[in-house]
Amino acid sequence: MRPTFLGFEAQKRTLQVAQKSLDITGNNLSNTNTVGYTRQRVDLYAMYISGNQSLRWCSETNNLSLTGQGVNAHGVSQIRDIYIDKRFRESTAVEAETEQTMEILSEVEDILDNFETDGLLHFTEEFFSALQDYSVEKPDSTEVATLAVNSGVNLCRLLNDYDIQLRQVEDTYVSELEDTVEYINTLLDDINLLNDKIEEELLNYPEGYGPNELYDQLNLYVDELANYGEIDVTKNSNGTFTIDLCGIRVVDGIEFKTNRLIMEEYDNFGQAIIHYESGENLNAQTGILKSYFNMLNGNGVYATGNQNGEYGIAYFKSAINEFAATLANTFNSANGADEDPSRAMFVTDPADALFTAGNIHVSEQWLQDPTMIGQVRTIDEMTGLYRYGFDEVTDETGKLMLQNTNVIYLLSQFENEAVKFGNAHDFQGDVYEYISFMSNRLAQTITYEKSRYDAAVSTVDTLLDARDEVSGVDMDEEGINMLNYQKWYSASSRMLTTLDDCLDKLINGTGRVGL
Question: For 19, how many CA atoms within 13 A lie in the half-sphere containing its CB?
C-alpha cells in the first residue's frame, strides 16, 4: 500500500521549495539596483518515481506506481544568455575603441583645427602677403623687408608650437596607456583570485550550480576587460573562467595562472609596443588598446617598425614635419642656399638635422639682414668671385634702377607646380592644397570614427536592453512571482491540514460505528 505519511513528505518538500522561491524572489527585489546583479530562480523538478516492481501496488492488472511525490529543486540558477553576453562584449569593445579614438583626435583637432582660420593657412598667407608687399618695393627697403622676415618668424613659431602641443598630447596618452596596461593586469589578478575562491565555494553546491554572487562579480570583471580588446570566455568544469585577450590566454582557470601585459619603454622606440609575459606581441583588433595603438602608432604612409597606416598623432606630426621640410628646402634652394649655405632663409638646430616642425627657425643671416632675400648673386668682373647685391637696371633715361627679381622668384614658389608639398604616396600639391588636405584628412577621420561610435552605441544599447530583459530584475514580474509563491505556500499549508484531517479520521475514527 501507499505509505501513510507519503503525502506529508511531499507537502513538506513543497513548503520548503515554496519558501525558498519566496526567498529568492525577495533576494531579486533587494538587488534591483545592485550593479551587475543577475536575476536568480529556483530550478524545480517533479520527484522521480522508481520503476522497481516492489514499490508498486500488488496487482496483475493495475500497474499504478507511487506517483504524486511532489516537487523538489535542483538549485538556484542565474538567468543569463551567453549569446547576448558575447555580442554585448564585442560591441562594447567597439564603442570603447571609437570613443577613445574620438577623444584623442579631438585633442589633435583642438591644436590643428585652425588650419584654415587663424592657424597654418593664415600664417602662410601672411608670409606670402609680406613677400608680395616686399616684391613691389625696392629690394633695399629695409622696413618692408623686416615685415617679411617677421612673418617668416611667426610661421616658424606656429610650426614649433604645433610640434610642442602634439608631443604633449602624445606624452599624455603614452602615460594613459601605461596606466591602462597596469589596470588590465590588476583586472587579470582579480579574476584569477575570484576563480580560486569560486572553486573553493563550489564544493558546497550541487553539480551544475555555484556561488551566483561571485559569478556576478566575475562577469563584471569580464565586462570591464572586454572594453580593452576582443575576449573569449570559457567556463571550465571546476566552475572557473578561462579568458583569452586578443587571441592569447591571459587567465587560466584550471591552473590559476595569469599572463600579464608588459609595455616597453615608449621613448626607447618612439612607438607603443606591448607584449605578454609569455612573449607574444599584443595584436588588438578592437577595444581601447587598439585605439591607443592606432593613435600613437598610426603614421599613415610614413609608418615604420611597429607603426601602422592609421591616421593618429604620429601621422599628423609627420604631415606637419613634411610641410616644414618642404617649405624650408624650397625657399632655401630658391634663394641659392644649395650653392651658398649662408643664403639659407630657414635653418635647424642642430644645423645638420633634417627639417621638422619642431626645429625649423629663421636663419641669423636673414634676421640680421632682412634685405638678404632681395639680393642676387653675380660674378665680380674684376676678381671673378661671386658677390651679392641688388639687381640693377638702367631705364630709358639712363637712370639706374633697382628691381626685386629675387623676391618675385621666391613668390613664384607658392604657385610653382613643380614644387610639391606632402608625400607622393599620400598627397602632393601646392602649399595651399596641402594645408586643405591635412585639414580635410583630420575632419574625415573624426567623422568616420563618429559614425562608428554612433553605430556601436546603438548596438550596445539594444543589446543592453535585451540583456536586462533576460537578466535584469523586473519589479512587476517579481511582484507577480511573490504573489504566486505566496498562494502556492498557502495552498500547500492547506493541503497539510487536509492530510492531517484524513489521518485523524483514519486513526481515531476507523472501526467506530456511527462515527
Answer: 7
